[in-house]
UniProtKB/TrEMBL annotation:
<dbReference type="GO" id="GO:0005737">
    <property type="term" value="C:cytoplasm"/>
</dbReference>
<dbReference type="InterPro" id="IPR016181">
    <property type="entry name" value="Acyl_CoA_acyltransferase"/>
</dbReference>
<dbReference type="Pfam" id="PF13302">
    <property type="entry name" value="Acetyltransf_3"/>
</dbReference>
<dbReference type="InterPro" id="IPR000182">
    <property type="entry name" value="GNAT_dom"/>
</dbReference>
<keyword id="KW-0012">Acyltransferase</keyword>
<protein>
    <submittedName>
        <fullName>Ribosomal-protein-alanine N-acetyltransferase</fullName>
    </submittedName>
</protein>
<dbReference type="GO" id="GO:0008999">
    <property type="term" value="F:protein-N-terminal-alanine acetyltransferase activity"/>
</dbReference>
<keyword id="KW-0808">Transferase</keyword>
<dbReference type="InterPro" id="IPR051531">
    <property type="entry name" value="N-acetyltransferase"/>
</dbReference>
<feature type="domain" description="N-acetyltransferase">
    <location>
        <begin position="52"/>
        <end position="201"/>
    </location>
</feature>
<comment type="similarity">
    <text>Belongs to the acetyltransferase family. RimJ subfamily.</text>
</comment>
């Protein structure tokens, strides 16, 4: 692990920056690393190409898809992610497959103290949507959050129609906790979302990565 920055709470923000993996799945070698400024062109190419694959699952935002996902928009997003990480509020990572950027996974709204909780969200490029990429990335980040990052609970919300993401969360051991009615504005309307969660005790003692390996879904590299 590389040395981390000083954050506003004092000392090193636990768990970021970090490099996680690699973990071999059918799609290739999956690893996580912090986002970089020069990811702009690859990130934008994937996001613009995969609008139809992504837009129905992501919160509505100001501006059109092109404006929000052009290479020119990346520096501001990268800077915001890095600033949140340095304040101890987030752990942002890009997902790579065989060394190439293939998506993002972000742990956000990190709350310490008695709660020690956060949410996790991710997207994977359409041509990497199969082969275990999202499942491997989620396993890596959950183990990291419950290890070095010192969290106790992770939460994920997903539209009931998003069958692919529901499968990923199920494979990782997230359990359904309830339905949030009209929870987020997605694709131009207020959408219901299912809430899933997992706690550190539910991954003990082996962790999710070792569990995937034992199930034959992944191999350590």
């Amino acid at each position: 692990m590389s040395a981390g920055p000083t954050w506003e709470g004092g000392g090193r923000h636990p768990g970021w920056p970090a490099r996680l993996g690699p973990l071999r799945v059918d799609a290739g070698l999956v690893a996580l690393r912090p986002p970089r400024l020069f990811d702009a062109s690859t990130w934008s190419r994937l996001r613009l190409r995969d609008q139809a694959h992504l837009e129905d699952w992501e919160p509505t935002a100001v501006g059109g898809w092109y404006d929000r996902n052009s290479a020119m928009s990346w520096p501001a997003q990268w800077s915001s992610l890095r600033a949140s990480a340095r304040r101890g509020q987030a752990l942002p990572f890009v997902i790579t497959v065989d060394g190439e950027l293939a998506g993002q996974i972000t742990v956000g709204n990190v709350v310490r103290g008695a709660l020690c909780s956060a949410w996790v969200g991710y997207w994977v490029a359409a041509d990497r949507a199969r082969g275990g990429v999202a499942t491997a990335a989620l396993a890596l980040v959950v183990d990291h959050c419950f290890g070095e990052a010192g969290l106790h609970r992770l939460e994920a919300t997903v539209r009931p129609e998003n069958a692919a993401s529901l499968r990923v969360l199920g494979k990782a051991g997230f359990r359904e906790e309830g339905l949030f009615l009209r929870y987020l504005d997605v694709a131009g309307d207020w959408r219901d979302h299912l809430c899933f969660a997992i706690t550190a005790e539910e991954t003990s003692p082996e962790g999710l990565v070792r569990r995937l390996v034992a199930q034959g879904r992944a191999r350590t590299a």
